Amino acid sequence: MNNLDTTRIAATGMLIILSLIILFHLLVMVGIIPYDMVWGGRLKNSAQMLSFEAISILLNLIMLAVVGIKAGVFKVNIHRTIIQVALWAMFGLFLLNTLGNLLSQNELEKLIFTPLTLLLAVFSLRLALSKEPKVSY
Question: Where do transmembrane segments lie in this chain (predicted)?
Answer without folding.
Answer: 12-35, 47-69, 81-99, 111-129
